[in-house]
Amino acid sequence: MEQKAKRKFNIVDVIIVVLLVAVVGFAAYKLLGSRNSGPRAMTKVTYTVKAEGVPKEVYENSKLHLPSPLMASGALVGGQIESVEKAPYYVLGPDGEWVEDPDHVTLYFTATTETPTEAVMTTKVGDQEVRIGKTDYILKSEYIEIKGGTIVDVQWGE
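The structure corresponding to this sequence follows.
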């Protein structure tokens, strides 16, 4: 009876064990190995955010803090606000004509970031997608926050 309890593996059992180990090893490599596969190719993304009706003091104060690192959810996300330019902001006057608002301006912020090349089609800064025409964009850095901006230009690559 003791002889029957000591059953030996036959060739089919060995092949099955080897195949199972190979499948588990391959799955582990795909799940864990692909994350640490070395440096990924990155694409530089430069985009412009237009903010209308901003108090004119924001322009001068923003210039003092540029370049400024981009943030989202209280953390740095890579990239920075490079520059800001101002343009007049027009409002409808009492006579029905457009007049320049002396207290507000339109600002154009230029920001740069890098995104993995394979993810260029869904460029994100933090949790926000960067797309031309996006109208509810929040541009945020350590010192600057502009809500409700519109992305008016995006350039992928150098």
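The mean pLDDT is 84.
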